[in-house]
Amino acid sequence: MVFIGGPRQVGKTSLARSLIGSAAAELNFDVAAQRAAILRQELPPTDTWFFDEIHKYRGWRNYLKGLYDQWGGDKRILVTGSARLDLYRHGGDSLQGRYFHFRLHPLSVAELGGHADALGDLLAYGGFPEPFLRGSDRFSRRWSLAYRERLVREEVTSLESVSDLGKLELLAMSLPARVGSPLSINSLREDLQVAHATLVRWVDILERLYGVFRIAPFGAPRLRAVKKEQKLYHYDWTVVSDPGARFENLVASHLLKWVEYQVDVEGRAMELRYYRDQDGREVDFVIMEAGNPVSFIECKLGDAPVSPALKYLVARVPGVASWQISASGSRDYVSAEGIRVAPAARCLAELI
What we know:
Blueprint: E1 2-5, H1 12-20, E2 25-28, H2 32-40, E3 48-52, H3 60-71, E4 76-81, E5 100-103, H4 116-125, H5 129-134, H6 137-159, H7 165-174, H8 185-192, H9 196-208, E6 212-218, E7 231-234, H10 243-266, E8 270-276, E9 282-289, E10 292-300, H11 308-316, E11 321-326, E12 333-334, E13 340-343, H12 344-348
Parallel strand pairs: 1-4, 1-5, 2-3, 3-4, 6-8, 10-11, 11-13
Antiparallel strand pairs: 6-7, 8-9, 9-10, 12-13
């Protein structure tokens, strides 16, 4: 079986249909008649079954395990969902060894040809296909507002028990202003007047539903790095109003897309992190493989001197490919420390 997860409206269903062809049976758990067919196991006699949003059925893992054990040699089974299919288990037997899991992300600079114009359009309209292809600021804003409302009012309620949707919606609205800085749960708790454990759970819910993603800090004791403070970003980066933070969010999304491709397709043990030490020095992103840093990336809006924090980190962890990239800058050179300074599109075009 193949599972495809990712944010809602990122293109999972369109991709699945292009892969399976017209002869496959499509079964969407959100459609009443198709949901009934799933629950009764009245499945069409075809070679390929495509299940969409079946993770909303609490027994979905046992259900698919049963289908695989009965038909695995004769059927192709494709599953898509707008939640973390690797996390929404709801108990039941493990599916280990019975499926491959892939994650679909918003559009990227590399997919759009690697040009600076593509970067500008993505910053303005986001990477979700519908608002990007419309190319309208007004439509993008309206789409983003509706998207966030549906995430809270429809996706959350279909999978989670939340007693105060109003405050959860306030949380979702307040998070974009915190992009670019370590996320303080205590500060959010004081603003929203909810318990610490409740707020932690709500952020976890938004992450499981592909509303946001978090990255952890990198650092060894000799670097005096912080250990617990995570940074948070949005799959829809247009919700971030500050230009510098929006650009950083876009880069985070691009890097996460590349890292998760390496994990899902190539089986490499990679992850995305950031660096911050106890003296306040910070480098926006660190790409790790097998526990070791392989790349440092610092983001700037325009042409700027090389970041002292990036120089500090490169000096203490030598031999790591390092970039300082800019949203609107034009300078392209290698610094004395071996740091590549370049327009962002030239770095992001090397990804996927």
